[in-house]
Automatic annotation (TrEMBL):
One of its GO terms (cellular component) is membrane. It is found in: Membrane. This is Methylamine utilization protein MauE. Pfam families: MauE. GO terms for biological process: methylamine metabolic process. The lineage of its organism: Bacteria, Bacillati, Actinomycetota, Actinomycetes, Propionibacteriales. The chain crosses the membrane at residues 7-26, 46-69, 76-96. Its main location: membrane. It is a multi-pass membrane protein. Residues 7-138 form the Methylamine utilisation protein MauE domain.
Length: 156
């Protein structure tokens, strides 16, 4: 392992964890709007919209906190990566189907005027976050982590 890998992993942890934490915190205070954002994608059966809209912010906060403190980095990076893949797929689907919605990524969500969508920027942002999750999955050892080195991983 290169000497700078743990520093890059620290930055990746703080950026990815910070984004997940902020996204969840902005939604957790208004669960009905979070459910509305999930509903706007028109991808899930109505019975799943409320539980996902209400539960998603708590999962984002949990993943964000674990990444920021550096506990279970490989597993939480994998979870964050799965979230990013789902978010990329959902936004891409909305875009392909011609929906005009706000992604609801940082609160809000629902219908917007056709010229107000930002699908490309949202997808590119989430691809960048997916890259960070991939880096952390491959390089979970980082500076200032609660658990600085996962079992079975040794620094070279």
């Amino acid at each position: 392992m290169k000497f700078w890998f743990p520093w890059v992993s620290l930055i990746a942890r703080l950026v990815l964890g910070g984004v997940m934490l902020v996204a969840g915190a902005l939604k957790v205070t208004d669960p009905e709007t979070a459910a509305q954002a999930v509903r706007a994608y028109d991808l899930l059966p109505s019975a799943l919209v409320a539980p996902i809209g209400w539960g998603l912010p708590f999962l984002e906060i949990a993943i964000g906190l674990l990444l920021v403190v550096g506990f279970g980095v490989r597993a939480t990076a994998a979870a964050a990566g799965v979230f990013m893949i789902v978010f990329i797929a959902a936004v891409s689907s909305a875009w392909a189907r011609g929906l005009s919605i706000d992604c609801g990524c940082f609160g809000g969500g629902g219908q917007v005027a056709p010229g107000q969508t930002k699908y490309l920027q949202e997808i590119l942002r989430d691809i960048g976050l997916l890259v960070l999750a991939g880096w952390l999955w491959l390089n979970p050892v980082s500076k200032f982590a609660v658990v600085s080195e996962p079992q079975g991983v040794t620094a070279s």
